Amino acid sequence: MSRISGRISTQSKDQNNLLVLLEEAQSKFGCLSQEIMSELAKSVGVSISEVYGAATFYAFLSTKPQGRNVIRICKSLPCFLKNSELIIESVGREIGIQPGETTPDGKFTFQLTNCIGACDKAPAMMINNEVYGDLTSKKIMAILKACK
Amino acid sequence: MKNIAITINGLQLTGREDMTIFEVAQANGINIPTLCYKSELPPIGACRICVVEVEGSRTLVGSCHTPIAEGMVVHTHSPKVLATRKVIIELLLASHCGTCFMCSKANMCELRSIAADLDMGLPQVPTRRLYYPVEDVSPYVIRDLSKCILCRRCVRACREIAKQNVFAVAYRGFESKIVVDFDQPIDTDVCRDCDVCISFCPTGALSRPSKVTDEKKGRPLIICD
Amino acid sequence: MPEKRIVLRNCNAIKPNRISTYLAGGGFEALSKVRGMSPEQVIEEIKASGLRGRGGAGFPCGLKWELAKNSEGDGKYVICNADEGEVGTFKDRYILERDPFTLIEGMAIAGHAIGAESGYIYLRAEYHYLLDSLMKAIEQVRKRGFLEQFDIDIREGAGAYICGEESALMDSIEGKRGEVRYRPPFPPTKGLWGKPTIINNVETLMNIPQIILNGAAWFDQMGTERSKGTKVFSVSGDVERPGVYELMLGSSLRELVEDLAMAQRVKIVQVGGATGRIIPYSMLDTPLSFETVLGAGAITIFDESRDTIDIVYRTLEFLAEESCGKCAPCREGTEALVGILSKFSRGEGESRDIVVLEQLSQAMMLSSLCGLGQAAPIPVMDSLQHFRDDYENRIAEKMAVQ
Q: Which residues in chain B land under pLDDT 70?
């Protein structure tokens, strides 16, 4: 993450870097609040609508607050064939929320995602930027336990 | 600029080399329907209603944005073209709110008029309808996004002609929506009284507030699926 | 035919974090050779090799480069498409993890050929964990002085399948929503920020240094008439040995699926991911080539226990979610296809729904703005062609219940 921040500071704040700036803000603050988006709109010189339009287009950008650990379980076919539905169930049971929700303590956000390119290790999921493959219910318990 | 010879519907026509198929057709009295193109605005090729058959092309091509080329042979109303246009209109109607009988756009609606031209029946496709509350807080414009077909004319007109940037497209795919700020109802803070977007809207999604009194306004029609 | 490693030759052979291991195996010799050649000579070589794009569309690589070279204007760009989002594809990840140097060398050669001074690698958000190692690899190459005439930066996606489509990819690099543009103009004429641009898949660029070193004739004698060289496949699903395999183009699907990946009781092979073809077991001897089936090389295998309609339904759900929403036939059509397929999967399909599926598919293929909308109906059409009984049985079952 630190590298990205380093790179951005050398980037001019113009329209062409809007996505890079949104990505940076997302990783720094965990979500794109209206305050952040307004500020970005002003600094790159586009309307708030345009910033909001770009922010809501991409699945990895969020305009709502997210947990410290964003769990994304792959729901695409290669993982589905390896029983990803059981994994989705296990994770839901373990952290007590449904896909699309965030735990009240702000520890986890639970999402389903499309193919993450880890089909050779299906079923797979991501927690923040880390990929976990060949998942089993048992493995998941250990992985979730290690999350801070 | 060079003149280019093309054939449209069997007619030998010529156009300047920077012209699109749509422009040449129009200049020669051939009417190609469209929902997103307007000569005052840059083309975007979004509605795909203006597609035409160009011999040698694997797919149909959008006439509003495809430049003419020497020797091009175009069919604007072939069976393949008409069948395709019909399906697209059917799709748009299927997710449209379907309250034509009480829509103030009435016969001025371009979606409805193209549907009539194509002899459309009732849509066969099972599609979700997206209902949005009517935005009527602004004294200048009422937005009823349940009637929006995402042609983006308002987005472009606001940017190119009114020189503002009030609108943008947000979200993705079927959930796409033309938004103001953080998806808020349009109000006087962001939009002044210029009417430009309203005049470009092909449907009843954007309209001028009519001078009815509040008690006559009534509640929006709610249809239960 | 056993595996043939050209693209993957350095994978697991060099250390991806040590440029010296790459140099020891002849790394950057192709770039040095190219510096002594004119751009025309380089392009001639690539054209003569018959190399076609590995991202799915199969456009002749040399021709693309030539168009960009001949386009007027300075500030041209080379973009490497590393937005591998097609369902069941992970070969580019495998390559980026193991051999970033060949890719960088390939891009630098492309830069020399078209006269570009800068390039971008567009990396999908899901591969963010590769960013650091890629940056370090670029830095090592830069330190060795190989990027003095042509430099490379990385841009990251943010979770959008459509950004693998070249025009959406450019919009995304430009900081906008990753929406598709109409064409013409094509990127080699008017691409990133309106400048002449070539966009090549990771695997395409991986072939370049080898073609330069060994010559076009060497490459041209591999593969089939119109599909030269090898192809890297990502194999997953109901198989014993999922993974990445590189085979000569023209090898049979059976060889890959049954012999190498050890699949059993195969019912369906989806070749090319969500927008790819649905191949029934009876057609397993089909050769893998641009003339037949290929896509970006995603091979997903479904055994006899799997339900065809469920596969198609889930595929279309993916495409509907990932449609950018700009053009009406794709935005509304994918949603409508999902609606009809969900009826079938609930056992509520009717005969007339099949007619609607076919009409919709036809219109979407003919009128959508980009490849996503044009190819989205392929799983529907293919399954209706090869597994029509599955649809009709559902309808019959429903009738029987009533």
A: 211-225
Per CATH, the number for B3-77 is 3.10.20.740
Distance CA C321, CA C376 (A): 12
Phi/psi at C25 (nearest 5 deg)? Answer: -95, 20
Q: Given an 8 Å threshold on Cβ–Cβ distance, is A52 in contact with B165?
A: no
Whether C25 maps to a domain, the answer reads yes
* Longest distance between any two alpha carbons in chain A, whole Å: 50
| Distance between C376 CA and the closest CA of chain B, angstroms | 13
Residue C153 has pLDDT above 90, yes or no: yes
B184/A contact by beta carbon, under 8 A: no
Asked whether C230 and C247 are in contact (CB, 8 A), the reply is yes
- For residue B156, the chain A residues in CB contact (below 8 A) are none
Which chains are adjacent to chain B, needing at least 3 Cβ pairs under 8 Å?
A, C
Q: Nearest CA to C42 among C53, C52, C32, C27?
A: C32
ipTM: 0.95
**Residue among A18, A45, B157 nearest C177 (CA):** A18
CB-CB neighbors (< 8 A) of A57 in chain B: 170-172
- Chain A residues whose CB is inside 8 A of the B165 CB are 46-47, 49-50
Give the domain range for residue C149: 19-220
One CATH from 3.40.50.150, 3.40.50.1860, 3.30.70.20, 3.40.50.1260 for B86-210: 3.30.70.20
Q: Cα–Cα distances in Å, from B67 out to B50, B62, C152, C276?
A: 14, 10, 34, 31
Residue bearing the bigger pLDDT, B98 or A63: A63
The CA distance from A130 to the nearest CA of chain C, in Å, is: 7
Residues of A in contact with C322 (CB under 8 A): 114
Indicate if the pLDDT at residue A10 is higher than 70. Answer: no
Environment class of B79 (CB within 10 Å of its CB; exposed 0-12, middle 13-18, buried 19+): exposed
